[in-house]
């Protein structure tokens, strides 16, 4: 038969490939084993300025004054940011800073607290 994995939602063995996605004809669930592997590799690959690996939920400290684009606000050195979330892209930390609100940061400007 095929070497494709069973459907993770219903367990059907009749999965098939559609481009780079896997599809279950019984429950119409679509998933990509490649996307899941890439996401876990990128999450494991995000490090702070000192080379420490970052994870979702970590607390970090800003190591440089950062101007907030489109505003006169500045995120000062030493600002603690709690409960970060790692995302894909150039700015790989999604967070909420007290007094400023939600924003995205680059991991090169923070250190793990």
From TrEMBL:
Domain Protein YjdM N-terminal intervals: 3-32
Pfam families: YjdM, Zn_Ribbon_YjdM
Record NCBIfam families: phnA
InterPro entries xrefs: YjdM, YjdM_C, YjdM_N
Homology family: Belongs to the YjdM family.
Residues passing through the membrane, by range: none
Domain Protein YjdM C-terminal: 47-113
Upper lineage: Bacteria, Pseudomonadati, Pseudomonadota, Gammaproteobacteria, Alteromonadales
Gene3D superfamilies the UniProt entry points to: 2.20.25.10, SH3 Domains
Source organism of this protein record: Aliidiomarina soli
UniProt protein name: Protein YjdM
């Amino acid at each position: 038969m095929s070497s494709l994995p069973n459907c993770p939602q219903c367990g059907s063995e009749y999965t098939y490939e559609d481009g780079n996605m896997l599809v279950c004809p019984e429950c119409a669930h679509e998933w990509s084993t490649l996307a899941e592997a890439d996401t876990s590799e990128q999450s494991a690959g995000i490090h702070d300025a000192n080379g420490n690996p970052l994870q979702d939920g970590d607390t970090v400290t800003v190591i440089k004054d950062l101007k907030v684009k489109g505003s006169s606000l500045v995120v000062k050195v030493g600002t603690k940011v709690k409960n970060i979330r790692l995302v894909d892209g150039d700015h790989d930390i999604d967070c909420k800073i007290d007094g400023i609100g939600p924003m995205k940061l680059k991991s090169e400007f923070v250190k793990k607290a």
